[in-house]
Amino acid sequence: MWNFVLNIFRFYAVINTDFAQYLDNFYVQSLWNKDDKVVEIDLISKDSFSFYIENHGRVDIAQGQRFKTVKSRKFYLNWITELLASAKFTIFKSICYNNKVNIIFAAKM
């Protein structure tokens, strides 16, 4: 499963070449959530760095910053974006991967 998550990052790096140089700045942590009975996969930044998202500007990543991946469940994309917006997240970009997986880049401002 962690290869799948890293491959999504690699796919994004093809689209955003400025980000490609930072792929090795993350490691993957997988934990079993016994309550939800799912494996939670987090990407954790090894170092602090910045990169640019076209039409959005600079993104600063802090060392140790944790990025949660969505659990293996089915949700409508508009539900997720509304939930992020209600939690005061700004959505920078949404990318569809292989017509099955959507990646949403969002940050709490």
Percent helix, as a range, is 25-40%
Could you give the distance between the termini?
Answer: 30 Å
Q: Which oligomerization state do the chains in this entry correspond to?
A: single chain
User: Could you tell me the strand content as a percent range?
Assistant: 35-45%
**Count, helices:** 3
Spatial ordering of strands, largest sheet: 1-2-5
Overall structural class, as computed from helix and strand content, comes to alpha+beta
Over all CA atoms, what is the radius of gyration?
A: 14 Å
Number of individual domains = 1
Mean pLDDT: 77
- Ranges where pLDDT stays below 50 over 5 or more residues in a row are none
SSE string, helices as H and strands as E: HHEEEEEHEE
Largest sheet: 3 strands, antiparallel
Q: What does the model show?
A:
With 109 residues, the chain is an alpha+beta fold. Strand 6 and strand 7 (101-108) form a beta hairpin. The chain has three helices and seven strands; from the N terminus they run H-H-E-E-E-E-E-H-E-E. The chain has one domain.
Can you lay out the helices and strands and say which pair or pack?
Blueprint: H1 2-15, H2 17-20, E1 26-33, E2 38-45, E3 49-53, E4 57-61, E5 66-68, H3 77-86, E6 89-97, E7 101-108
Antiparallel strand pairs: 1-2, 2-5, 3-4, 6-7
Key descriptive features of the protein:
109 residues, alpha+beta, two-stranded antiparallel ribbon
Concise structural overview:
The protein has 109 residues and is α+β, with helices and mostly antiparallel strands.
